[in-house]
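Hi all, posting the design record for the shared folder.

TITLE: backbone redesign
STEP: 1 of 1
STRUCTURE INPUT:
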């Protein structure tokens, strides 16, 4: 059975999202970071309020750094720590 986010060793580095150029591995790592930040009480589960933070991180100030970092890393294709006009415009 093929899962939505594959963790199979032979597929983990395939592109998950070709538009954003994100691999399965990168998406899973991003989701884990976002989950940990949203899980305010650290119990490994998301209650309704924490789920809202997870699903809509840009609506919550505590998630601002996560959102900016994720977008920045996706846009910085050259991985030089800066986003050029060409990278920004796609």
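Okay, here is what came back for every position:
SEQUENCE:
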């Amino acid at each position: 059975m093929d899962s939505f986010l594959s963790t199979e060793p032979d597929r983990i580095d395939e592109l998950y999202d070709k538009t954003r150029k994100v691999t399965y591995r990168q998406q899973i790592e991003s989701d884990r970071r976002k989950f940990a930040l949203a899980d305010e009480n650290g119990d490994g589960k998301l209650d309704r309020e924490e789920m809202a933070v997870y699903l809509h991180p840009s609506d919550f100030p505590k998630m601002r750094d996560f959102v900016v970092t994720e977008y920045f890393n996706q846009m910085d294709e050259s991985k030089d720590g800066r986003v050029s006009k060409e990278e920004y415009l796609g």
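COMMENT: The mean pLDDT is 87.
Let me know if anyone wants the other runs.
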